[in-house]
Amino acid sequence: MKTSLSLARALAIAVLAPTLATSHAAPQDWEKLENCKLAGAEYADGDSFHVVHDGKDHIFRLYFVDCPETDDRFPARLEDQAKALGIPVSEVMPLGKKAAEFSHGFLKQPFTVLTKWDDARGASKSQRFYAIILAGNKNLGEELVRNGYARAFGMPVDYPTAAGMQSYQRKLKGLQADAIRMRKGGYALSTGFVKPDEPPASPQAYIDYESQLSGQILDEGLQELGIGIPVP
Q1: d(CA 209, CA 114)
Q2: pLDDT, tens only, 167-185
Q3: Could you give the dihedral angle defined by the CA atoms of residues 68, 70, 74 and 76, in that order, rounded to the nearest 10 degrees?
């Protein structure tokens, strides 16, 4: 019989992966939230933010991009990000904190959120939604990738002002290739070879990636509740 951890992971993938797939596939209208402000830093890193709009609190996660982690709750994710960036695992969290500082600087002034209210889940008990964040004529996700603080790997969506999802992914991959060649941000720390012309990951690849992380989150939750399947 499998351990409770293996069962928890299987349950997470079975339950959460269809939700992630639906968030990608189901067409919804975009909603524009203007004059948003960054709330406290208790839930904020490079690509996830606690936002206040019109007196209401929301937690948003950026579409399309992935910033390095800022804590070590998920070692496998740290290892994956280190491999993608060509840096030692020990450098991932310090880079994640630099990415958070970059994003917080970007969001000092009121900004605009574009969202379809797709469920982004996450480790927080609070509900989280995917979004695109704009400040003036700049896109936060693009700027993170351009400066080497995020990789062009994240939940895709039909980008509202571009020719389409795939063309926007190619744009981000181009920005990432430039950051690699110019050794910006995390790529300045790279000790290995990182291919600047790697093709965009498929939507399913990201869904699978997030499903694995969701399995870890569910594992932790079951352990906290003292729920487990006895091993014979």
Answers
A1: 24
A2: 888 899 999 999 998 999 9
A3: 30
Helices (H), the chain: 4-25, 75-85, 92-106, 140-146, 165-181, 203-225
Mean pLDDT for the stretch of residues 44-63 = 92
CA 203 to CA 226: how far, in whole Å?
A: 35
- SS3 of 153-189: the string is CCCCCCCCCCCCHHHHHHHHHHHHHHHHHCCCHHHHH
Which residues touch 218 (CB under 8 Å, ≥6 apart)?
8, 9, 11, 12, 16
- What is the distance, to the nearest Å, from the Cα of residue 42 to the centroid of all Cα atoms in its chain? 17
The structural domains of the chain, with segments of one domain joined by +, span 28-202
Whose CA is closest to 170, among 160, 184, 181, 159? 159
C-alpha span between 210 and 156 (Å, rounded): 13
Neighbours of 164 (CB within 10 A): 11
Q: Which fold has domain 28-202?
A: OB fold (Dihydrolipoamide Acetyltransferase, E2P) (2.40.50)
pLDDT at 52: 95
Pairwise CA distance, residues 70 & 186, whole Å: 14
pTM of the model: 0.78
